[in-house]
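Possible regression after last week's pipeline update?

I re-ran a chain I had predicted before the update to compare outputs. Posting the input and the new output here so someone can diff against the archived version. Not blocking, just want to make sure nothing changed silently.
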Amino acid sequence: MNIRKLEKQDKIPMELLLLADPSETIVEEYITRGDCFIAENEKQVVGVYVLLPTRPKTVELVNVAVAEVHQGEGVGKLLVTDAIRNAKAKGYKTIEIGTGNSSIGQLALYQKCGFRIIAIDFDFFIKHYEEEIFENGIQCRDMIRLSKDL
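New output (post-update):
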């Protein structure tokens, strides 16, 4: 598996990005301001993440997505680990991530990778998304904010 920065001539893997964030408008907005990285397996894009600078010395991992057929194979952990490595290499001191209260698997993954819960943005997904989001039989309402010192 190879993880690399998306080049200008590469096609943006929108279908993958929309797995992690269902708003195409929001994805299009942050994809232009951040750096997009893709995981390839035999030239097939199987995962993606986006690093978005937010404050001095702070970067946010705004989207981590793995193709459904490759979920459960450790690709997500590879992506998060690569994002941490890239953030360190660029001189950031903190990496942050936000996920839904219903994203149980993602919450576990991020904590296993060293992130700690720092805040809850109550009703974030109700206020910022037109459609209701459900995962694991739970309505996604709140943004759980996590952070990791680099």
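Follow-up from reviewer: compared with the archived run. Residues 51 and 83 are 7 Å apart (CA to CA). Marking as no regression found.
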